[in-house]
Design brief:
Length: about 290
Amino acid sequence: MLLVFRPQYSWLAEIPSGFFRPHVLSIGNLFNELPNDNFFIITDYLILGLISLIILGVKTRVSFILLATLLIINNAFAYGFGKIDHTFLFILFLYLCAFLNLGTRRAILKDEPNKNCDWYVTIYSLLIVFAFFTAGYEKLINWFDFNFGTSGILSWFYSGYFNLGRNKLLAPYFFNIPIWIKELMDYSAVIFEMCGIFFLLYSRKSWRIYLVIAILFHLINTLVLNISFRLHLIIYGLWIFTTVLKKNKLFIFLLIPFLFKGQLATVIQWNLFLYIGIYSLRILPKDNKLKG
């Protein structure tokens, strides 16, 4: 979290409260205006402190719950300006970590072991599949039209390229790709996002294959659309990275590229996770069908 995604909210102190219009169901509606500027500065330090407690293993379970709850509160204020980000899976991931045995062995103040970890991981897997499905269903309605005169991926590409300055990496070369390939990209994105449940239910190995495809999907998004979804590296790492760490602890050195930031660094990180994902498939036990 320190290397990939450390949430910061002190920037909210610089925005006039007049722009604050929270959603009707948001807890931000409990406030007439944004809290005092010092509130967001203090919460930034609290976030850093809670992450440090998690790393050290100081009541890890409570620290995860406090961190996730603090992010929900601060996001309620951040989203009150109209932009809703893709951090909900990450916050749910933090709550998931609170119920795993992350602070029961190598920790300063250890937690009591939890015997139901697998159930929590299964539920979270279903949430990931559901999140992908909702994104795919929206695309199915609008993109799956067998019409070469329209393109879903181009609707993202043009708006990002000309309006948001997403014109780095392979984006300038995307203009030269034939329209039929772009149409195939539309359909493959829909199929990928909607069929996750089948990969999840078939076996452990097929689920990891789906995650490898997801990593490739995000790598292409980074290269072409300049949308990194770098936050998802942490989420996929629950299955991908922890698998290889069980085999060889030296794989921890593969985190070195995460010290660097920028779009090129993100491409390297997604490529690295693609390699780790493929390697994790090789070291899985052969008998990996789900039982019961």
